[in-house]
Amino acid sequence: MGEASVKTLETRTDVSSHPVTGSEHRPVPERALLTRLRSPRRPRIWFEILLIAVSYWTYSLIRNAVPEQKAAALANADWIWNAERALGIAVEESVNHAVNSVTWLIVGMNYYYATLHFVVTIGVLVWIYRFHPGRYAATRLVLFATTGVALVGYYLYPLAPPRLMNGQNFIDTVLVHHTWGSMASGNLKHMSNQYAAMPSMHIGWSLWCGLTIFAVASAPWARILGLLYPTVTLVVIVATANHFWLDAVGGMLCLTFGYAVSRAWFGSLPHRLPRHPEHTEPHPATALLVRFRR
């Protein structure tokens, strides 16, 4: 009887020495959720399609909502042109006229400018999603951050493309050759802000594609094509009189910002992350929905 009382007392003492706190029953701490958001994981196709669709719609809405400050845009174009002359790199007009004299070449460039900007970018996203899922979120973040900071440039620095400058002899190749393409030419010009040339997202996106392919692809020919793509794009945007050389520099700076954001969030550049995620937990967005439903 005495021994039983002692054991009962000891058991009660042990239980009381380890009080249960509310923190032990917390479902998912905020810090743990943040860690999950920042760690590579397998993307979910429905979430990615929705995210890309909403993001591009928002980008187009904001870009086209930026007021078309024609006077300021033309003044900035004159400043850019004079700055390039002072630097000895103002060859856009010569390139524009030289390429325009070869009909099949300039027509091909018009279609290149209008289509590959979207086709190649989406293709690279799908490729990374399918074959490098562990690097997908970081690679996507680079693209999104690059595009987001470009919107700031459109708002703060309206710029007319060379083909819309006054007193210059640039050729609007889409109008001259009646090719479908530019949203800022012909019947489609009222659907897009014509004075959002700085920075050039044709360069920002194509360089993102090229660097991603070069850093991740294993086939030498693919890596070469990755480097050629932004190089050809640079020639195209100048030959079609849609951008100055310095617009391309603006696009490169935006891409640098995009890589900096991605590295700060994931702790590494995209190509240095594991090709496949180490675990396949539910997507953070799915986890949040489950928690809200509870």
TrEMBL record:
<feature type="domain" description="Inositolphosphotransferase Aur1/Ipt1">
    <location>
        <begin position="79"/>
        <end position="260"/>
    </location>
</feature>
<feature type="region of interest" description="Disordered">
    <location>
        <begin position="1"/>
        <end position="24"/>
    </location>
</feature>
<feature type="transmembrane region" description="Helical">
    <location>
        <begin position="141"/>
        <end position="157"/>
    </location>
</feature>
<dbReference type="InterPro" id="IPR026841">
    <property type="entry name" value="Aur1/Ipt1"/>
</dbReference>
<dbReference type="Pfam" id="PF14378">
    <property type="entry name" value="PAP2_3"/>
</dbReference>
<keyword id="KW-0472">Membrane</keyword>
<dbReference type="InterPro" id="IPR052185">
    <property type="entry name" value="IPC_Synthase-Related"/>
</dbReference>
<keyword id="KW-1133">Transmembrane helix</keyword>
<feature type="transmembrane region" description="Helical">
    <location>
        <begin position="224"/>
        <end position="242"/>
    </location>
</feature>
<dbReference type="GO" id="GO:0016020">
    <property type="term" value="C:membrane"/>
</dbReference>
<feature type="transmembrane region" description="Helical">
    <location>
        <begin position="111"/>
        <end position="129"/>
    </location>
</feature>
<feature type="transmembrane region" description="Helical">
    <location>
        <begin position="195"/>
        <end position="217"/>
    </location>
</feature>
<keyword id="KW-0812">Transmembrane</keyword>
<protein>
    <submittedName>
        <fullName>Inositol phosphorylceramide synthase</fullName>
    </submittedName>
</protein>
<feature type="transmembrane region" description="Helical">
    <location>
        <begin position="45"/>
        <end position="62"/>
    </location>
</feature>
